[in-house]
Amino acid sequence: MSAFKDISPYLSREFHFTELEIARIRYVIISFISETSKLAVLFTAFSLMNRQKELLAAILVLLSIRNFTGGIHLSHYLSCLLFTFSFLLSAVGLAELCFPPLWIQVLCLAAGILIVGVIGPVSSDRRPAPSKKKGNIFRIIACMVLLVYILLLLNVRYLPFRNLIFWVSILQILQLVAAKLIKERKQYHEKIHKNVPV
């Protein structure tokens, strides 16, 4: 983003943006370019497998939960892309190969609501954690989304991508648990290192 550095003085001079505001603008631009390029790569890869519809459905379900629960966050573009690709490919693969009975799906998603209610949301270390009030709101929304999916599974017999909805939800809940464990382990190690005498 060297081009952005070149226009930073211009933004500061002409629009009187502070350094913090310029940093925020830069973050938005980099995030947009990063996420758009990842989506293009994913769409191309899934198009080669003739699974474009499945990809779009999986992304919509994932975003409906992950935006409110958080999860594993990776710091490098390539590792993030590979993790996202693996996650979505696993969800699509499981949806096509593994069909748990409806009662197991409902039971698993109900357990997922309890898990999200207890440990969500898990934010990235590179972003400020949400306030307690905001965290509670996110938790409630995520639980409501999962409840909606349970009701859809129970009441809509011919729901498109019903098995995919289940597997994306379950994988995201498992990812949330993993993210929580990773974060707690990291905080534990940081606490130990702070208490070690130099």
Strand portion: under 5%
Profile the largest sheet: none
Q: Spans with pLDDT under 50 lasting ≥5 residues?
A: none
Q: Give the helix level as a range of percent.
A: over 70%
Folded structure, characterized:
With 198 residues, the chain is mainly α. The protein is 80% helix and 0% strand. It has seven helices and no strands. Helix 2 (19-48) runs parallel beside helix 4, helix 3 (52-69) runs antiparallel to helix 6 and helix 3 crosses helix 7. It is globular and about 60 Å long. The two termini are 40 Å apart. The relative contact order is 0.11. The model has no long low-confidence stretch (mean pLDDT 88).
Summarize the structure.
By secondary structure, the chain is an all-alpha fold. It contains seven helices and no strands. The two termini are 40 Å apart.
Key features?
mainly alpha, 80% helix, single chain, 198 residues
What's the topology here?
Layout: H1 2-15, H2 19-48, H3 52-69, H4 77-97, H5 102-119, H6 132-155, H7 162-195
Helix pairs in contact: 2-3, 2-4, 3-4, 3-6, 3-7, 4-7, 5-6, 5-7, 6-7
